[in-house]
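Query structure, 129 tokens:
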């Protein structure tokens, strides 16, 4: 079992930055690849970023590549999502998530997050234009 606690959302102006955090507890964190998903009002949940258990590989959606950076601090059982040059289209609820025995590449292919085993409660990001 893994418990995920995501945080760091807030209101930011377009062009601004935010850093989301997700703290994991329970199972051995270092064995899990981790991912971030987001869901905007009226839209389906979508993949944002994923990172391998070793931190060597990261994957991003085309929408955020070059603006967002996912990282992890294994001793702290925490993953981060650094979001820069935010756009109104980036607004939504952001969720960290993971799946047992899945690589980061596999996580990046889980459409809408279907197949994930564990989810954070989500943190709201609002971007004003």
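Result returned for the query:
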């Amino acid at each position: 079992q893994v418990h995920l606690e995501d945080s760091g959302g807030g209101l930011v102006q377009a062009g601004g930055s935010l850093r989301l955090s997700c703290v994991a507890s329970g199972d051995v964190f270092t064995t899990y690849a981790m991912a971030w998903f987001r869901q905007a009002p009226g839209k389906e949940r979508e993949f944002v970023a994923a990172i391998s258990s070793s931190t060597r590989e990261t994957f991003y959606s085309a929408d955020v590549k070059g603006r967002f950076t996912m990282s992890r601090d294994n001793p702290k059982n925490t993953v981060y999502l650094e979001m820069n040059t935010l756009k109104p289209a980036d607004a939504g609820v952001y969720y960290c998530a993971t799946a047992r025995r899945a690589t980061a590449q596999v996580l990046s292919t889980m459409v809408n997050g279907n197949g994930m085993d564990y989810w954070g409660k989500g943190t709201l990001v609002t971007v004003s234009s």
